[in-house]
Design goal:
The complex is a heterodimer of chains A (454) and B (486). With 454 residues, chain A is an alpha+beta fold. Chain A folds into 4 domains: 3-93, PmbA/TldD superfamily (PmbA/TldD fold), CATH 3.30.2290; 122-157 and 177-226, PmbA/TldD superfamily (PmbA/TldD fold), CATH 3.30.2290.10; 237-250 and 360-452, no CATH class; 271-357, no CATH class. Chain A contains 9 helices and 20 strands. Chain A has helices at residues 3-18, 78-93, 129-144, 214-226, 248-259, 261-265, 326-332, 364-369, 419-424, and strands at residues 23-39, 42-62, 65-73, 150-169, 174-192, 195-198, 201-205, 237-243, 286-289, 310-315, 318-319, 340-341, 349-350, 355-357, 373-381, 391-402, 405-418, 426-429, 439-440, 444-452. In chain A, helix 1 packs parallel to helix 2 (78-93) and helix 3 packs parallel to helix 4. Chain B folds into 2 domains: 8-242, PmbA/TldD superfamily (PmbA/TldD fold, 2-Layer Sandwich), CATH 3.30.2290; 250-482, no CATH class. The chains are: A alpha+beta (454), B alpha+beta (486). At the A-B interface, strand 2, strand 3, helix 2, strand 4 and strand 6 of A face strand 1, strand 2, strand 3, helix 4 and strand 4 of B. Strand 2 of chain A pairs parallel with strand 3 (81-87) of chain B.
Chain lengths: 454, 486
């Protein structure tokens, strides 16, 4: 661990305790990044940054529980850290005692034997900005040379982020890990008969060597934009709806949000009283694993210093566990699942790590061929999901399926239903799992949803 | 260099000098470093922001927080290119380092640059003077306010089973220094009060949410005359939705209520008129200046100069004074929203819409307060004119695809209209349409222009900025409504 991180965290904890906290924790995130966008033949922008943020949490024991507060600052001078620690305690004094508040009751990760989760490649540290600009340029050129109907774009963007997270608490845990993420994103426009369509493709990974070839990213983005040309609405109907590798993960995120311990004790989830029950079809097995090697959501310990782990949230349709940190676990009478999510600028909450739906059988093409009439959704927009009721209604674009074949592109429609019904009526889950972030899903089909159009 | 003794720029320059040792000569030197090679424009953006929030749930305030964000961003422009470097350390050395990084994007060497900055560009106005910064209000006062809101919400109806309330205050000190001699400072307060309740009746549960705020002192929101109606609204909407039926799907005439439904303008029209998309010709509104894009009588304005509003700014984040920009005049497209870069590349004037989330972000053209001017009709007459349709009073959020023009937004309070009469509340209504087309379907415009309560946050390219919207009651013919009942 860097001397700076060790010293700053120790100072923050010491000062918070001397100001009156009985427990405290601190997180220091040091990050640097470079990012560039190329549009056409020109560099649009190059951005480089360096940031360090310290977050301090102080808890004060009282007769009925603990009061708490969180502060953050990027000023790491001794005077500033001491001032922030004092202020954290002062703010905490104004809050109410909460019997459930506190650091975890032991079980911390073993800080000198943290697993190597393949979160970065040391060789990537010195990546030159020119090399990432070149990646963006290659994606951009490939996208623009696919077809003469591609003559414009929002550009192709490459980014590399490096970060070092150090976390320590007054129970004696002190750990650190380093990670990186690299991405390349291309967003071309296709023109035909006076109308325009855009779409994108991307690749992202912990190592530069894990990224797809830039030209392949550009070509795939162009193909996705081209296939949307000539899109039209369809009459309002009830049909099977297929979500692809880009759109299905959003459903999983919504499910995970409704499994968060916070949503449960706040009565903010339509799944609140369903623990142990069948909430999905046999095809639904939802896994969260914070220790997936190379995973974009992987980390050796969570935001409270507890070891991350693999949790099966839904197994063959049956709801097995909530996602919990120590606070929500105490509230619900369980134990943490190692899902405390914490940035330096806030108190711990619950977050999924690497979340995926277990693959089933068949390719997307086979699922389409098995669908006499329906909609393949390739893009969702808007925020039409109510976690309390499960009501779901979002704007969609995609491809219309007639007789098991793609008939024409579709736009300006909504797909609607209720997430509770959608989960139980998933009747196909494909075999391909493609990671575009921390959440991945094979293509899946919901037996029946309302598609609103003309 | 010289500047007026009591301009906002002087205040913030004093602030940054006292805290970080920045003065006129090292600001000029920092810009000089950025300008060492030939560039069109370079600027420095200094920020020191404090934000705090207090959150109540389960009838107690469990935690409070306070965050200080500080840093400097240095930008260099040459042609269409921008180099940007930012650091969370504000010092003479960090400015010099960031400036040389930003400069490195430029390939041609010139004889070195020199620039003198002065405070002449500051606007002679303050749209949001505050005697007490929101972040200086004692946390105890905020805690007691939230406690009162909680008790009040629960006293209104026994079906209210959960209350979450929060109060958020922010104070940003900004200093902008440009290679054209700009030296502008601003101090921007922002406050917000939120309440969310859950009502339960048997098996059914529903959420009601309301918020309000703006750029003014926090004590305005702490008056019972302000927060009580807010709580009443949240409770009313939650109870209303307990009785809501599923929304029918299909094409129908829609009446939008006044105020917050103005996000229709923001999503469907406003984004498509931002200068970057139009310079790149990636917007469905590209090359359409002078063309009819809305029905007769429709005039849409973006105005950053409304005193105390959430979307207002004395100057944008490039130091350009904000102003009132007419976008659509009586149905005809007459203007775009610009930052400096896109204005220069399109041969137009900056409109005061260059905004950024923080020093860690590049400015982009963004909206401020976007609204439609009032028409002549009584809202009741507009409702009476609809035979079979939907009355949308409030929305949870929306999104647009700039290129295809398709937008969507989700109603949080909506009713059926049958034979000109407001009927049952419906839930899950989603409106979808096409930006360049939807305003052409506006058939009636009410006389009741209202602004939202000050809760809008707009996201673009990963950057969030506070915005405002406004709308009179309007009727839009034949809009697609997404719902579950086909």
């Amino acid at each position: 661990m860097s001397v700076v991180a060790r010293d700053v965290i120790a100072l923050a904890l010491r000062r918070a305790k001397s100001a009156g906290a009985d427990q405290a924790d601190a997180m220091l995130v040091e990050a640097d990044s470079l990012e560039s966008r190329v549009r056409g033949d020109e560099i649009d922008f190059v951005v480089q940054s360096q940031e360090r943020t310290l977050g301090i949490r102080a808890l004060i024991r009282g007769s009925d529980g603990r009061r708490s507060a969180v502060t953050s600052t990027s000023d790491l001078s001794e005077a500033a850290v001491e001032r922030m620690a004092d202020e954290t305690v002062a703010i905490a004094r104004a809050t109410a005692e909460d019997p459930f508040a506190g650091l975890p009751d032991g079980g911390f990760a073993s800080s000198d034997a943290l697993p190597d989760l393949d979160l970065f490649d040391p060789g990537d540290r010195n990546v030159a900005v020119e090399a990432r600009i070149e990646d963006a340029r290659r994606a951009e050129q490939a996208a623009r040379s696919v077809d003469e109907r591609i003559q414009n774009s929002e550009g192709s963007q490459a980014a590399s982020h490096f970060s070092r997270v150090a976390y320590g608490n007054s129970e004696g845990f002190l750990g650190e890990y380093e990670s990186a993420s690299h991405s390349l994103f291309s967003e071309p426009l296709a023109h035909e008969n006076g109308s325009m369509q855009r779409d994108y493709w991307m690749t992202v990974g912990r190592r530069l060597s894990a990224l797809e070839d830039p030209a392949a990213v550009g070509r795939r983005a162009a193909e996705r934009a081209l296939r949307r040309l000539g899109a039209r609405r369809v009459p309002t109907c009830e049909v099977p709806v297929i979500f692809d590798a880009v759109t299905a993960p959003s459903l999983l995120r919504q499910v995970a949000g409704c499994l968060s311990g916070y949503a449960i004790y706040r009565s903010m989830s339509f799944l609140g009283d369903r623990m142990g029950e069948r909430i999905g079809s046999e095809l639904v097995t939802l896994v969260d694993d914070g220790r997936l090697p190379g995973g974009l959501g992987s980390k050796p310990f969570d935001g409270e210093g507890l070891p991350t782990r693999r949790n099966v949230l839904i197994e063959r349709g049956e709801l097995c566990t909530w996602l919990l940190d120590s606070y929500s676990a105490r509230k619900l009478g369980g134990t943490s699942t190692g899902n405390a999510s914490r940035g330096p600028g806030g108190a711990p909450g619950v977050g999924a790590t690497n979340l995926w739906l277990e693959p089933g059988e068949g390719t997307l093409e086979e699922i389409v061929a098995d669908t006499p009439r329906g909609l393949l959704v390739t893009e969702l927009i808007g925020m039409g999901f109510n976690p309390v009721t499960g009501d779901y209604s979002r704007g969609a674009a995609g491809l219309w399926i007639e007789d098991g074949k793609i008939a024409h592109p579709v736009e300006e429609v909504t797909v609607a239903g209720n997430l509770a019904d959608m989960l139980t009526s998933i009747d196909a889950v494909g075999e391909e799992l493609h990671w575009l972030g921390r959440v991945a899903s094979p293509p899946l089909r919901v037996a029946r949803m309302t598609v609103a159009g003309e | 260099m010289s500047f007026d003794a009591d301009s906002p720029a002087t205040d913030t320059l004093t602030f940054f000098r006292e805290r970080f040792g920045l003065d006129e000569s090292n600001l000029s030197a920092g810009l000089g470093t950025a300008l060492e090679r030939s560039v069109d424009f370079a600027d420095l953006f200094f920020e020191y922001s404090t934000q705090d929030s207090v959150v109540l749930e389960e009838s107690i305030v469990k935690s409070g927080d306070r965050h200080i964000e500080q840093g400097v961003g240095v930008r260099v422009q040459r042609g269409e290119r921008q180099g940007y470097a930012h650091s969370d350390e504000i010092s003479v050395e960090s400015v010099r380092l960031a400036a040389s990084t930003a400069r490195a994007i430029s390939e041609q060497s010139s004889g070195g640059g020199s620039v003198t900055v002065s405070g002449g560009g500051a606007p002679g106005r303050d749209l949001y003077p505050v005697a007490t910064a929101p972040t200086d209000v004692p946390v105890e006062q905020k805690v007691s306010l939230l406690g009162e809101m909680d008790s009040y919400a629960r006293s209104l109806d026994s079906r209210i089973v959960q209350v979450m309330a929060s109060v958020i205050g922010q104070q940003r000190h900004l200093l902008m220094v440009g290679s054209d001699g700009t030296l502008v400072g601003d101090v921007q307060p922002l406050v917000r009060l939120n309440v969310q309740v859950i009502a339960a009746d048997g098996e059914r549960r529903e959420i009601g949410y309301q918020g309000m705020g703006g750029r003014h002192q926090l004590d305005v929101l702490m008056e019972p005359a302000q927060w009580k109606p807010l709580v009443q609204e949240a409770v009313r909407v939650a109870l209303l939705n307990l009785d809501a039926v599923s929304c029918p799907a299909g094409t129908m005439d829609v009446v939008l209520g006044p105020g917050w439904p103005g996000i229709l303008l923001h999503e469907a029209i406003g984004h498509g008129l931002e200068g970057d998309f139009n310079r790149k010709k990636t917007s469905a509104f590209s090359d359409r200046l002078g063309q009819r894009v809305a029905a007769e009588g429709v005039t849409v304005v973006d105005d950053g100069t409304l005193a105390g509003r959430r979307g207002s700014l004395n100057v944008d984040d490039e130091g350009t004074p904000t102003r009132r920009n007419v976008l659509i005049e009586n149905g005809t497209l007459v203007g775009y929203l610009h930052d400096r870069l896109n204005a220069r590349l399109m041969g137009m004037e900056p409109t005061g819409n260059g905004r950024r989330e923080s020093y860690a972000h590049l400015p982009m053209p963004r909206m401020t307060n976007t609204f439609m001017l009032a028409g002549q009709e009584e809202p009741e007459d507009i409702l009476r004119s609809v035979k079979n349709g939907l009355y949308a009073v409030s929305f949870a959020g929306g999104q647009v695809d700039i290129t295809s023009g398709k937008f969507v937004f989700s109603a949080s309070e909506a009713y059926r209209i049958e034979d000109g009469v407001i009927g049952r509340p419906v839930k899950g209504a989603t409106l979808i349409g096409n930006g360049p087309d939807v305003l052409q379907r506006v058939s009636r415009i009410g006389c009741d222009l209202e602004f939202d309560r000050g809760v809008g946050t707009c996201g673009k390219d990963g950057q969030s900025v506070p915005v405002g919207v406004g709308l009179p009651t309007i009727r839009v013919d034949k809009l697609t409504v997404g719902g579950t009942q086909s």
